[in-house]
Amino acid sequence: MRRIILSTESGADLPQDLADKHAVQVVPMHVVMDGQDYLDGSLPVKDIYDYYERTKKIPFTTSTNPHEYHDFFTKIRVDFPDCIIVHIGYTSKASSSFQNAIIAAKDFDDLFLIDALNVTGGLAAIVMYAVNLLEKEPTMEPTHLIEKIESVVPKSRLAFVPGSLEFLRAGGRVSNVAYLGGALLKIKPLIELIDGKLVSTKKYRGKMSVVSEKLIRDYLKQYDIDRQQLYLIYSIGLDDSIKQRVDEIANENGFKNVKWIQAGAMISTHAGPGGLGIAGIEI
User: Fold this and answer.
1) Is the pTM of this model over 0.85?
2) 51 in a structural domain
């Protein structure tokens, strides 16, 4: 039976230990700062925050291009001869990356693409769902695997609260007026993935320690998440006491495996330091 290799983009924020353990191949997206193009993952996230402090500007992010995808898929075939590739991609509604993968895929046989319609931990949750399927049934037929992955795409739920309205303002996602009002009232928007798009669905008020608890309790009330796996996303700067409290709530609600994921450059560029997110798959 030919081996199935899973792949995804760096925008999944899949922890390196999980990628290495399960041979998930990750292609980098891009961060452009000070006129220089960096591969996502090669640039410490702290450099993004330092850049903002110096310039009051944020970098901009770009997708993986077709040529890079072609090289990426070619390398997988070299490293894993005669494999079947299943690529689980960053939402096509927020990036051209998936479309670029489609362009590159035309030159390959036995390469299947799935639009995850999600980002960061929401995308990672789908990738790890596929990993778990293959661990349980290594000889699963590719068509059956793809059907099962596609069936959970609309069930992957991601919600996060940015740590800083300053980054949203710098990126043009909130106006100066909204920023000043939000900062004064300590308002933090809740961002969710809906039909593959990042949408602000509600607003929380208060310190991050209060907001974080509201976030996880509201999320678990709204969605019936599979208790076997939960992904918690944080950006650098989130207080350890908040992480500890969120862990406690997750454990109280019966989650068996809680995995913390550090937001990479793609999300951190827009969300700023000290943000918190939560992701899982509905039953």
Assistant:
1) yes
2) no
